[in-house]
Structure formats: C-alpha cells, structure tokens
C-alpha cells in the first residue's frame, strides 16, 4: 500500500496533522491542465515516499519552471526532508529520468537560503557553505604574517582517538599532528587551541578535579598548548585502558557541552573562547559503523567547519559528522605523511571563500547531481537552464469517525498507516510513536511529532507510569537504529522545585533514573531523556536535538474545531 498523504493545518499557531488513506494505490500519472504549454507538460514522474516527483521534459531557467509548477494545486519546487529522500531522488534521476542535473526548491536571495515554498525543513546537503553561512570578517588581531595572508580569528579544537579501536602509538601520532597544525596556523594568524582524546579510561575521567585538565580550556600560545599535549601523552603512558564502549558518543557530547555550549551555561561550563568561529578536527579508527553513525551528528556552529578523519581502510566513515556533512571528510590509510595532512586540513579550515562566480549573483538556485557520490547540492545562477524537479501531494477525503469510542475488537489507534504502537497488556488506550525528526525539548513539547499522522488528536511527549510501560517503550526504541537518546515528557519545574510530567499527569509513583541522577541544580539541563544504552533516564541540556517518544489517548475528547476543519476538506 502506498504511503498516507499528509496535510498540515495551522491551528492555534501549531500545525495540526490530518491523515487520509487513499482508497486505491496513488497514481502520479494524472492530468495537469495547468502545465500545458509549459516545461512540465510532458513531465516524467516517480513516487518517492509520499510525494509525486515530476521532472521537466526540457531545460529551462528556474523561475520559468517554478512558475509552471506552482500553477497546479498543492505543487511546488521539490523540498527534501532527509538523507533517505535525498538518496531516493538521486536514484530516480539516474534510473528513471536519466538526468544528471536538476533544480530543487532551495534558493539563495541576497543574504539567506530558504525553501521557495516556505517549507521549514532544516535538512540541507550543500557542497559549499559560502552563501548560506558566509565567513565572518577577519578578527582585528595583529599578526606578524603577510597582511594578504592574515586569517579569520579561530578557536581550534583537535580530538584524538584513544579508544579500543586505536593504538597508543597512533594516538601519539595524532597528538603530534595537533602540535604541527597549531604551530602552522599560529604562524599565520590569530588562533587559540585546545586538544583532548577520547576512549581512554584511567579511572578518573569523571572526577571533577581533573575535568579542566581532561577537557582543557583554550591555550593562547604554543607553550601552553604543548603542555596540554604532554599531559595527554602522560595519561596514555600511565596505563590508560582503551576499552570505553561509549567513547565516540561521549566525545561528541563533550565537544558540544564544553566547546560548543552556550557561553552562559553553568552546569557544563564551556571553555571561554575569544572567537565566534570554531574549527574542529576529529580523528577516528572506529570500525563499528553503527556506533559511529548513530552518535555522530553535531549541531553546527555558524561559519565553523568540522574536519573528520577516518584512519585505516576499515575505519567507519565520518562523513555525516563533518560540517558541512561529507564535504569536510578525509579518509587515510595511515598517518605516514603528517606534513601533507597539515596542509590539507589547514586548507579546509581557511579556504578562501571560494566562489564559482566572478561576481556573486543576488539570487542562486540549488541543483542536485545524479552522479555526486555524497548527494551534494550545488549553487547556480537561476537564469541557467536545467531540468527542474516539482513535487505534488494529493489529498483524498475520507469522512472522520462519527463517534470517539473504542471497539474492544479492534486496536484503538487510527489511522493504521500512521504506524502507531498499541500495547493491549498495558490496559490503557494510549497510542505511541517515535518521531522521525530531531528537535530540542521546547519544540518537541509544543508539537511532538509533526512528521506523522494523527487524526483529531494532539500528541504529547510521553509520561511513563509503570515499569511495564517502560519495558514497552524499550522495545520501541530498540527498533530505531543509530539513536542514543530520546526525549520523554519529564521536566524540572522551577516553580515547584521538582520534576513534573508536561502532559499534566500527576502519577509520579514510577521513575527510572540512572545512578547519580537527577542532577539538580542544573542550569539548562532541566529536561529528561531516555538513554538507549543502559535503559535509564538522565536530565540533560534542553537544547539538544533528539527524537521524541510521543503518545495520545485514543479516548481523550478531541478538538472539535480541528474536526470541523477536517470535515471541510
């Protein structure tokens, strides 16, 4: 059966999601009278997910094709929501359309990049960040270098791999590289530097007395930076056990807490920096691709590159960890030529705002290449003629149920196509679902899973009232690959000085805290996440982008205004 179609209606400033299930298999080869005489008149099509994707039969400039596309109801230039869809579009271009380049609905206009139809999708896969995230002006710090070669002031973080996948000799080489790169950069412009490694457990990693040495602040000169390196070399030689199973995940979290975190945070006090731009270099010899990919996404800082380096032919790819994704990823068989690597990494950190244009156009339109191995999008003057991808979503009307009652002979969760989970042995009428998108806690609290279908009900972050219910959610979470944590609906209420369920539930008889939690007081980490690895709850930074565990009660009174809107479709 083809996927359910989705319609978002703005209701009380929040999207309300209505789902309809087609009576028959969705057909994309329908007549579009509005497209006659336009580049879309004889368009080929392909069903991708819940969208009919059409491609112009001939090349045209972006604006002409977009004008034709939007004349048809519910149609717009293509918006891509995630990596899986990005891959599917590339595949369709190669196998179905036999086209190398085609425009998307992603555009740049003067100072910003956005989707032309107003879609709020945050997904992007840019070949260059030059236009959407322009480089800031150089710092006004005096240097001894040639003025024509002066650099943007940068906070540099270099992270070595000291996990079970690496060796102590390899870790030492990576730290030697850190010294060489820092010296190379400091000779050419303003920089402050910090380095640490991950995966090495000598029994004191969590000791607050050594945190400042373990995750140091930025050194302002080479002598202080070399002291950081010497400390790490000493720790390694003293007998560090390279066996931490959560090493890669911990490294990503540490980077975001101590080096990317808000400068005002107090619970995980970030290392004070003098520059708004952070350049990060990460080494990994990890061969466990599921561990790396599942814990790798980094919340990027504007204008701040993340260069990732996989060491060894069997090491897992770090393409999804680099920023921009895949564009700043390097794979090396070994580290035999550090001098060349220094030059290569330096060039990526300080690439001189390259542009494929003599003068920057006021408007750019992004296109995809079918043959690009990374699935990147490329900017082009909108006047250049290319094929164009147009999307259409078709809505069918099915009357809503006349009564909001539960027939004990059937499951209470509708629509079936929303893939909701119901557990009969819980003895409740709750319908559960895990979101497919990641958001911070505040956004998730306001709208738990806007990417899924729920008829006439408003889903909420889940409240958990029993060990049995928790075990059911364990099972659901285990079915989601490559995710480390999920938001649940528990949050510290400063007014009453205790944790409360955001759905208003007053049943606090059950909890599932990890040992040592909750950690209160905690500035900025009042929100609770379920950790997949050990199955416990922790309170953590509310700004983290996580997937959510949501629910709604199938027998809870529905919003009659929303029902009325539904019936008018």
UniProtKB/TrEMBL annotation:
CDD domains: CLECT. Keywords: Disulfide bond, Signal. Residues 1-19 form the signal peptide. Residues 427-551 form the C-type lectin domain. PANTHER family: C-TYPE LECTIN-RELATED, PROTEIN CBG13490. This is C-type lectin domain-containing protein. It comes from Diploscapter pachys.
């Amino acid at each position: 059966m083809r996927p359910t179609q989705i319609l978002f209606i703005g209701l009380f400033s929040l999207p309300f999601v209505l789902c309809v299930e087609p009576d028959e298999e969705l057909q994309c080869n329908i007549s579009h009278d509005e497209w006659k005489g336009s580049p879309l008149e004889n368009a080929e099509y392909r069903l991708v997910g819940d969208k009919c994707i059409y491609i112009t039969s001939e090349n045209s400039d972006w604006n002409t094709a977009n004008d034709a596309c939007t004349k048809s109801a519910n149609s717009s230039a293509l918006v891509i929501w995630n990596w899986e869809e990005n891959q599917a579009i590339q595949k369709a271009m190669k196998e179905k359309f036999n086209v190398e380049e085609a425009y998307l609905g992603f555009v740049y206009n003067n100072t910003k990049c956005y989707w032309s139809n107003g879609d709020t999708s945050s997904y992007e896969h840019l070949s260059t960040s030059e236009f959407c995230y322009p480089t800031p002006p150089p710092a006004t710090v005096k240097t001894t270098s040639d003025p024509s070669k002066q650099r943007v002031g940068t906070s540099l973080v270099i992270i070595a791999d000291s996990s079970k996948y690496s060796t102590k000799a390899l870790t030492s080489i990576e730290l030697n590289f850190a010294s060489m790169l820092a010296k190379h950069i400091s000779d050419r412009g303003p920089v402050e530097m910090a380095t640490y490694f991950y995966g090495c457990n000598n029994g004191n990693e969590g000791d607050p007395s050594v945190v400042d040495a373990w995750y140091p602040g930025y050194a302002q000169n080479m002598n202080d930076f070399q002291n950081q390196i010497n400390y790490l070399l000493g720790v390694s030689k003293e007998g560090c056990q390279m066996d931490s199973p959560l090493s890669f995940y911990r490294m990503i979290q540490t980077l975001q807490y101590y080096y990317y975190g808000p400068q005002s945070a107090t619970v995980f006090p970030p290392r004070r920096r003098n520059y708004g731009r952070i350049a990060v270099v990460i080494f990994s010899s990890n061969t466990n691709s599921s561990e790396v990919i599942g814990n790798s996404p980094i919340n990027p800082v504007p204008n701040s590159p993340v260069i990732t380096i996989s060491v060894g032919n069997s090491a897992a790819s770090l393409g999804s960890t680099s920023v921009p994704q895949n564009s700043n990823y390097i794979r090396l068989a070994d580290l035999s030529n550090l001098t060349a690597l220094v030059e290569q990494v330096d060039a990526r950190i300080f690439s001189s705002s390259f542009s494929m244009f003599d003068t920057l156009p006021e408007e750019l339109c992004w296109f995809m290449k079918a043959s690009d191995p990374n699935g990147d999008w490329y900017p082009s003057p909108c006047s250049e003629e290319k094929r164009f991808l147009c999307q259409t979503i078709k809505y069918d009307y099915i009357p809503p149920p006349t009564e909001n009652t539960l027939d004990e002979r059937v499951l209470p969760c509708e629509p079936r196509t929303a893939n909701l989970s119901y557990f009969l042995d819980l003895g409740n009428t709750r319908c559960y679902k895990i979101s497919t998108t990641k958001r911070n806690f505040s956004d998730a609290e306001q709208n738990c899973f806007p990417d899924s279908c729920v008829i006439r009900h408003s889903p909420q972050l889940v409240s958990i009232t029993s060990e049995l219910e928790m075990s059911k959610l364990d099972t659901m979470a285990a079915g989601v690959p490559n995710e480390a944590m999920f938001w649940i609906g528990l949050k510290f209420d400063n007014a009453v000085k205790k944790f409360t369920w955001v759905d208003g539930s007053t049943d606090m008889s059950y909890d599932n805290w990890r040992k040592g939690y909750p950690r209160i007081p905690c500035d900025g980490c009042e929100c609770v996440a379920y950790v997949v690895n050990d199955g416990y709850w922790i309170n953590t930074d509310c700004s983290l982008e996580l997937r959510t565990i949501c629910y709604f009660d199938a027998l809870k009174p529905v919003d009659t205004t929303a029902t009325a809107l539904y019936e008018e479709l």
